[in-house]
Amino acid sequence: YYLMDLSYSMVDDLVNVKKLGGDLLRALNGITESGRIGFGSFVDKTVLPFVNTHPEKLRNPCPNKEKECQPPFAFRHVLKLTDNSKQFETEVGKQLISGNLDAPEGWAGRHDAGGRV
């Protein structure tokens, strides 16, 4: 299960995961007979001090207003475990970055999302 932080500081990582897509599952199948992959994402807790709760910032929390961002959320299960690499690529390809207020190395969202997986 690939759990990804979609906060704004991870924008480059999301681009890379979208590019790698099915390569992740193929790599798993290189070391196991029954490789499957799923996907979930998190940003952070949707309360102060983790996100800006101003209505406009909740709608588009990214600092770059030209970039399309999704509202923040604590955790989202996107794709159950599957052996279908195209389905993984499609679902990951739909993901948008979001934004938050804490430092990139903040652990509040990761800890909360990890407990939900």
TrEMBL record:
It holds the Pfam family Integrin_beta. It is a single-pass type I membrane protein. Residues 1-117 form the Integrin beta subunit VWA domain. The keyword Membrane applies. Keywords: Cell adhesion, Disulfide bond, Glycoprotein, Integrin, Membrane, Transmembrane. GO terms for biological process: cell adhesion mediated by integrin; cell-matrix adhesion; integrin-mediated signaling pathway; leukocyte cell-cell adhesion; neutrophil chemotaxis. It is found in: Cell membrane; Membrane. One of its GO terms (molecular function) is amyloid-beta binding. Its main location: membrane. GO terms for cellular component: cell surface; focal adhesion; integrin complex. Belongs to the integrin beta chain family. This is Integrin beta. It comes from Bos indicus.
